[in-house]
Amino acid sequence: MTSLSLNPSITLLFLSMLSLLSLTTHATAPIHLNEVCANTTFSSNSTYQSNLNSLLSSLSSNATHSLEFYNTTSGENTSNPVYGLFLCRGDVTPQLCQECVAAAVKEITKKCSREKVAVIWYDECMLRYSNRSFFSTVDEKPKFALLNTQNITEQDRFNKLLAKSMNETAAQASNAPIGSKSLEPKK
């Protein structure tokens, strides 16, 4: 029986390459959850359509600049402005955010092709546009909720744990530096 003797640096290089391969993940498509298309339509080849196309192009192109949130208006000096935004989950990579916004633009133009108001949700991002400004306002509609359908056997214990966790998270968030994604308290 012969023994195989490898140079330690080759062995280290081989193991490093294997560990890097195990860390790489294959990109998966963004996960579509839902969309709402309002029942207000516009005509094809209208000013609104042109403004909407411009807005969606702007949203898609700005998702490439490592932005997690972006809002803009197209045609604000016309009688048919379009207001829109995208928001990516804070823990997604810039590349996944970009892919999600691109998928959202593509899907919303298919599913809500003539609607003046639409929103589309993905697990990783959401995209919204409207013929009225909704920036810096709280809108309760359109909305989409994900519900937990599992049973909680100890409701009181669950509620106490939930309250404790929410209070601790709120305290950490209030002490975090402005713009921080981390919930570590200020030092």
Automatic annotation (TrEMBL):
Domain of life: Eukaryota
Entry keywords, A to Z: Repeat, Signal
Keyword Signal set for record: yes
Protein name: Gnk2-homologous domain-containing protein
Cross-referenced PROSITE patterns: GNK2
Secretion signal, residue range per the UniProt entry: 1-27
Family annotation (InterPro entries): GNK2, GNK2_sf
Domain Gnk2-homologous: 30-134
Organism: Quercus lobata (Valley oak)
